[in-house]
Amino acid sequence: MAGENKDASLLRIDYNNLTSEAVGAAGLAPETLASLKEPLTGALKNIQARHQKGELPFLDSPLDQELAQNCKKLANQGRKIFQDVVVLGIGGSALGASAIFTALRPLNHNRLSDRKRGWPRLWVADNIDPEGFTALLATLDPETTLVNVISKSGATAETMSQFLIAHDWLRKRLGAKAIAERLLVTTDPANGVLRKIVNDLNLTSLPIPPGVGGRFSVLTAVGLAPLALAGVNIKALLAGARLAAAEIQRPWSDNKAAILAGLNWLMTTTKGRGSLVLTPYADALARVADWFNQLWNESLGKGTKLDGSSTMAGQTAIKALGATDQHSQLQMWMEGPQDKTIMFLGVEKLRANLKIPAIFQEHEALSYLGGKTLADLLDCELKGTARALAENGRPNLTLTIPTISPQAIGYLIQTLEMATVISGVLYNVDPLDQPGVELGKKFTYGLMGRAGFEDFLDRYNQGLSSNTKFILS
Ligand code: PA5
User: Fold this and answer.
1) What does the pLDDT look like over 71-96, one tens digit per residue?
2) Which of the residues 235, 305, 441, 442 is marked catalytic?
3) pLDDT per residue over 169-197, tens digit each?
4) Average pLDDT for 266-290
């Protein structure tokens, strides 16, 4: 296992700064790195066997050419009719589309003129703050808006409330008959209330493959449809993801997903580093950190092992953005608790660059900038920060993609999803469930008066009466 992967085609992983050679006692000693062989070989065998049994269908998402063609067709028709596409979804039903849209369309896509944009604007409404949702609806013309409701369960309170509001908004403005043409429903192919509504009203719909959970679903209709509608090259995106998916067959030491999983697992379990900061150095990749946050946290933060015993597994993902967060979080990474691993995400060649003018050269504090570019500065800041952390005994690693292309993003997304399920095997937890989010939902149902959840309202109210002492107002 070398400190740097030689196959730099779509993703390079440089983990020199995770080694004891670079960061001393906080880093991984050569024998600890070598000890990854057994668990990673076992984890890869486990994943391959489950994949063969059809248990991890997200690995096959990039192979579904028919779905990609359907989404492309839908997009080609949609762009003639719609100016705006609004995704109603939350968590895994929203973050992937948002991440890839931000990465692969111009950062000002939604502000470009119709002619320059060429494709509808895309809005991902993943919160229920009435102020935000009201403001969004106020900017849209229902006549030329496609509402893409995305919910695998068809039961998520946030998405379903948005759906009811958007349905009413369309009906009041355009009449009941016009609704069907402006609604696209992405949900389970057979189950859930949304599927029932699709069937009852004969709405256009796309299926979410049953075995693919929300946070692993961006390369299904969940992400592909809105992304294609916004003009993303989903064919190239899937081609990149396919390359990564095929690498699940590679041996551990040459397997990027396995190495990422193994390194972070070691940092957590042998070095007490319970947090992983992902800090991309490109505005276009900022939302990738949001998407990764959900993937890593919801998949690996688990209280029960697969053998039923209790645990407190996982590594908390924290999002950051370079260079911005050098001026907010870096101080904590450098001198705060020794509980984090920092994962930089850099881009070899950014799509745009800006030369810094060589003016005010008489000022030494400015003259070194003149004639360089913003890309030079960003790159030097990433390198300088990584080095500074290492010199201060703070372990870090750097992922680098050659450019922000659909292939590279597809490859990165698929690799991180694979790293997540491999990590699940290492921690011996189920990365595909999220039991910890259920109890809060039940209290919410109780508080909202949903039938069958009266007990939770009672429990909540009992808690309230004994909790009055410690409130300041
Ligand atoms: O990753 C997950 O499974 C979750 O984050 C879900 O995507 C999220 O809760 C939304 O669920 P649904 O698609 O059923 O509305």
Assistant:
1) 999 999 999 999 999 999 999 999 99
2) 441
3) 999 999 999 999 999 999 999 999 999 99
4) 98
Closest listed residue to residue 201, CA positions, set 168, 176, 226 = 176
Task: Give the model's confidence band at 265: pLDDT under 50 very low, under 70 low, under 90 confident, else very high.
Answer: very high
Task: Kindly report whether the peptide bond that precedes residue 323 is cis, defined as omega within 30 degrees of 0.
Answer: yes
Closest CA to 346 of 390, 306, 400: 400
Residue 258 to residue 252: CA distance in whole angstroms: 6
Say if residues 342 and 394 touch (Cβ distance below 8 Å): yes
Backbone phi and psi for residue 10, each to the nearest 5 degrees, phi listed first: -120, -15
Cα distance between the two ends of the chain: 58
Q: Is residue 441 flagged as an active site residue? A: yes
pLDDT (average), residues 292-303: 98
Instruction: Name all domains of the chain by residue range, CATH numbers in brackets.
Output: 12-51+249-427 (3.40.50.10490), 58-238 (3.40.50.10490), 435-462 (no CATH)
pLDDT, tens digit, for every residue of 39-79? Answer: 999 999 999 999 999 999 999 999 999 999 999 999 999 99
Say how many Å lie between the CA of residue 92 and the centre of ligand 1: 5
Q: Which two tokens stand for residue 48?
A: 């391959």
Candidate list 298, 302, 319, 417, residue with the active-site label: 298
Rounded Cα–Cα distance for residues 18 and 7 (Å): 20
pTM here is: 0.96
Q: How far is the CA of 152 from the centre of ligand 1 (A)?
A: 7
Q: Which residues contact 81 (CB under 8 A, 6 or more apart)?
A: 144, 146
Mutate to test the pocket of ligand 1, among 58, 87, 88, 93 (most ligand atoms within 8 A of CB): 93
- Residue nearest atom 5 in ligand 1 by C-alpha distance: 91
Is the pLDDT at 469 greater than 80, yes or no?
Answer: no
Query: What does R_g of the chain's alpha carbons equal in angstroms?
Result: 24
What is the average pLDDT across 300-322?
Answer: 97
Pocket of ligand 1 (CB under 6 A): 90-93, 151-153, 156, 159, 213-215, 298, 434
Instruction: Report the C-alpha gap between 372 and 255 in whole angstroms.
Output: 37
Atom of ligand 1 nearest to the CA of 150: 13
